[in-house]
Every structure is written in structure tokens, then in C-alpha cells.
Design brief:
mainly alpha
Length: about 70
Amino acid sequence: MGMQSWLTVAFGAFCVVLGVVWAIKPVAMGKLQQRYLYLGAGGDEVQINETLGRVAGLVLAAAGVYLVVT
């Protein structure tokens, strides 16, 4: 396995872990994102942020699984 392959697998595994954590704790991850990146939906709309966070986490985890498998 070449260096490119190892980097792809490592990045994919990172995406899976980050995506799963984001899907489990979307509000906490959203606050972390706002604190460090100053991006994302803000305000008191916790229900909307929670739903968006769960969907984003699942998409990120799925992309990570794809990178690890291929």
C-alpha cells in the first residue's frame, strides 16, 4: 500500500470518527465549530441546528467509510 493509500485510509477513518461524534452530539459539535471556525448556523434554534448537525455527521461518516473501503 502506497503513501497515498495510507493517507486516504487515515483521512477516511478521521472522517468516520468525526462524523459519528457529530451525529451523536450535534449541538456540542456545532458550538465547537462556531467557536473555532466562526461558521455555521447560529442562534437559539437548537432543533434546527441539531437536525442539521446529525445529517452533516452522517454524511461525513458515510464519506469516510467510502474512503476507507475504496
